[in-house]
Write a structure and sequence with these properties.
heterodimer, A: about 200 residues, mainly alpha, 10 helices, B: mainly alpha, two-stranded antiparallel sheet, 2 strands, about 0% strand
């Protein structure tokens, strides 16, 4: 039971409290870039979640069974980014071959994910936080879902901004960033919710 | 000033195409490491070192790297230099290493570096590429320090860790929190837009036109482009 509680806390805190986009700024480029329409936001969010999970499945064992036993911890950055880049490639080829429909939906977002810092960030954070394999999987699932949630919420806000009269110097990126700060402010209100969950 | 003189290449990175305030690249470290001036300066210098080194090496290898696999090659080169910088900072500046944490490793995926490799170093000789890296790096460091100064003075009533006595009772903690960073950055971009009166190559959206990854995701970009248009 204790272990289960722990997993729920990890999952919820990475979705709500330590939301990767809104409180740690990881993956903010696609957050600002691909959130104009709801369907794009969902597509990107789902792709990121899938890649984050796959990346954790690959990087965690490599860190603990290859890099550390051989004293190669300093190669972490290079190895992880290569693993993520090749995973994305393989996933794209695989989807193209076996599920053209899914490829049509998610395929366009995949190449953008290689240079998405949220994915590399999750992989590295799982190691520095000393999570076990199961904990890592839950934490990356939470981060992915948190990203998806933020994207969906923000796409709603963006569509409202598009209808507004915005002063010309604020148009574009400036107003987008300021709008993002409101969502981030709203999420700050959730701090502490997880700590008291089982109290 | 001649268009391609060495000075103009450096100044281009600092002013005309400032990566942070005009091109709006590398948003993630810009927001995350600017809660204090010390961290922001460290991040800027670390990025500057990686940028110069990777620009030089990629420029040297620009006739050797096959076009099809150039992006993975660039990423490996950049990741190598990031590791070197990481180890140096870990050894000599452990405080800074603690402060920057995961963001130091994330210099690998900073789109300024990949963008300059793709847009400049792969087409220009070594000397010019080094100068371009220097200019862009200084521009990035400068912008980071400006944002960090605003956030630290208003939010923590200190500058680079040194407390400012008369502001002690007027801390607005909002500015050192996540949303404050976004507001300051957004207002600065708007200010630049207003000052240049739209003359600067203003980036309207995060579209493919200004995206350094455009080259290797042709598929995604044309699809998105059509939808946006």
């Amino acid at each position: 039971m204790e272990a289960f509680k722990n997993l729920v806390v990890i999952l919820l805190s990475s979705v709500l409290v330590n939301n990767y986009v809104l409180s740690r700024f990881l993956g903010i480029c696609p957050f600002l870039g691909v959130s104009k329409k709801l369907n794009q936001a969902v597509g990107m969010g789902v792709s990121v979640t899938v890649v984050m999970l796959l990346a954790t499945f690959a990087t965690w064992p490599i860190q603990y069974f290859v890099l550390e036993p051989f004293g190669l911890g300093y190669l972490q950055t290079i190895v992880f980014i290569l693993i993520i880049a090749s995973l994305v490639q393989i996933l794209e080829i695989f989807l193209k071959r076996f599920s053209p429909a899914l490829h049509k939906g998610l395929g366009v977002y995949l190449p953008l994910i290689t240079t998405n810092c949220a994915v590399l960030g999750v992989a590295i954070n799982n190691i520095t936080d000393g999570y076990t394999f199961i904990e890592s999987v839950f934490s990356s699932l939470g981060c992915g879902l948190g990203f998806l949630l933020a994207m969906v919420l923000f796409s709603g806000l963006r569509s409202r901004i598009d209808e507004m009269e915005v002063p010309s110097s604020f148009r574009g990126v400036a107003i987008t960033l300021i709008a993002a700060s409101f969502i981030s402010l709203a999420f700050m209100g959730l701090a502490g919710i997880v700590d008291n969950l089982f109290a | 000033m001649k268009k391609n003189s060495n000075l103009s290449i450096v100044l281009n990175g600092i002013i005309k195409e400032n990566p942070t305030l005009v091109l709006i690249l590398g948003t993630c470290p810009t927001l995350a490491t600017t809660t204090n001036v010390f961290g922001a300066f460290g991040m800027g210098i670390a990025t500057l070192m990686v940028l110069i080194c990777s620009n030089v090496l990629i420029s040297l290898l620009r006739r050797v790297i096959p076009d099809n696999v150039r992006i993975p090659c660039y990423i490996v080169i950049i990741a190598g230099f990031v590791t070197v910088v990481q180890m140096l900072i870990h050894a000599y500046l452990p405080d800074l290493y603690e402060m920057l944490g995961v963001y130091l490793a994330l210099i690998v995926v900073n789109c300024i570096i990949l963008g300059r490799a793709e847009m400049f170093a792969s087409k220009n000789p070594v000397g010019k590429s080094a100068l371009d890296g220097l200019g862009m790096g200084i521009g990035f460091t400068f912008a980071l320090c400006v944002i960090a100064t605003i956030r630290e003075v208003l939010g923590a009533a200190s500058f680079a860790g040194i407390a400012i006595p008369f502001l002690e009772n007027f801390k607005i903690e909002f500015f050192v929190k996540a949303p404050g960073g976004m507001v300051v950055y957004g207002l600065l971009i708007a200010l630049i837009g207003a000052l240049t009166n739209g003359k600067a190559p203003k980036k309207k959206e995060f579209s493919c036109a200004g995206c350094p990854s455009a080259g290797h995701c042709g598929n995604a970009c044309t699809a998105n482009g059509k939808e946006n248009a």
